[in-house]
TrEMBL record:
Its main location: cytoplasm. Homotetramer; dimer of dimers. It catalyses: L-aspartate 4-semialdehyde + pyruvate = (2S,4S)-4-hydroxy-2,3,4,5-tetrahydrodipicolinate + H2O + H(+). It is found in: Cytoplasm. Its EC number is 4.3.3.7. Pyruvate binds at T46, I207. This is 4-hydroxy-tetrahydrodipicolinate synthase. GO terms for biological process: diaminopimelate biosynthetic process; lysine biosynthetic process via diaminopimelate. It comes from Candidatus Sulfuritelmatomonas gaucii. The active site is at Y136 (proton donor/acceptor), K165 (schiff-base intermediate with substrate).
Length: 309
């Protein structure tokens, strides 16, 4: 895998009735690409994949690929805590032309051992082969950390396990990964706020939440860091660090969808068990978005309102 840079973990826009808003998703893809994003991830956790049924999930992946039209690589999220189920889902993804890579998080809730995670990801990789697999370590959501030694075992055991999205929150874990992983294996930060620190110790990019709202600026920050232009990278981080934090004032992606709705990009509708941010949080988000310049060219659509489904 040669890809580096910044990828957006896309939100999945919903209409007021809770159905997927395909025109809004198409528009978001075009805006992201026109803003210079390096790649796109459809149906990750920021895309509320856990609340999409299988037909919606596959349709959303296909739509993002169709809208991207080869201009940037499109990754597809594919996560489940049942290995049998995730392998079955992967077999469906194999029939979708244009999937550049599959991202899959640790099995959640089960709290598997390192050997359990190894066997889980190995089974998924074998089903996907030759499509590349990026494993996603996000213990804050899954209650299971994927240790660097296990990642190294996986890369050795399956040729198509070629990357990791690392969101343990530990810079030391990024450093260990860069020390033990083979050349060509890609390490992406899963935390906007740790992206520069991760790149400083050897990571190759970021899979971002904040680039939903500021794709050009977050991509510029990552490219500057990768080019060793640290003064520019740090200046952009200082400007947008409050946004990185704000996107998690309440459960992701409720805050980012609220900001996108204020920008006129899509509705802020989310599906239960997520709910729109509290009124006080929404007011803080609107104030912050205005202060950092996200709203200056953003018409607010009439009639946009919060719903949950």
């Amino acid at each position: 895998m040669e890809l580096t840079g910044c990828g957006t973990a896309l939100v999945t826009p919903f209409k007021a009735d809770g159905s997927v808003d395909e025109p809004a998703l198409w528009s978001l893809v075009n805006w992201q690409i026109e803003s210079g994003i390096d790649f796109l991830l459809a149906c990750g956790s920021t895309g509320e994949a856990a609340t999409l049924d299988e037909e919606e999930w596959l349709r959303a992946v296909r739509l993002v690929i169709e809208a991207a039209a080869g201009r940037v690589p499109v990754w597809a999220g594919c996560t489940h805590n049942s290995t049998r189920t995730v392998v079955r889902l992967a077999s469906q993804l194999r029939r979708v032309p244009g999937v550049a890579c599959v991202l899959s998080a640790n099995p959640y809730y089960n709290k598997p051992t390192q050997e359990g995670q190894f066997q889980h990801f190995l089974a998924l990789a074998r089903e996907l082969d030759p499509i590349p697999l990026c494993v996603y370590n996000v213990p804050g959501r899954t209650a299971a950390n994927l240790e660097p030694e296990t990642v190294a075992r996986l890369a050795s055991a399956a040729r198509n396990i070629q990357a990791i999205k690392e969101a343990s929150g530990k810079v030391s874990q990024f450093a260990e990964l860069t020390h033990i992983m083979p050349r060509g294996f890609k390490i992406f930060s899963g935390d906007d706020g740790l992206a520069l620190a991760a790149i400083a110790v050897g990571a190759q990019g970021l899979i971002s939440v904040a680039s939903n709202e500021a794709p050009a600026e977050v991509t510029q920050m990552i490219r500057a860091a990768l080019d060793n232009n640290w003064s520019e990278a740090r200046e952009l981080e200082r400007r947008y660090s409050r946004l990185f934090d704000a996107n998690f004032w309440e459960s992701n992606p409720s805050p980012v969808k609220t900001v996108l709705s204020l920008m006129g990009r899509c509705s802020d509708t989310v599906r239960l068990p997520l709910v729109p941010p509290l009124a006080g949080t929404r007011a803080r988000l609107e104030r912050l978005a205005g202060e950092i310049g996200l709203l200056k060219h953003a018409p607010i659509p009439a009639g946009v309102r919060s719903e949950v489904y």
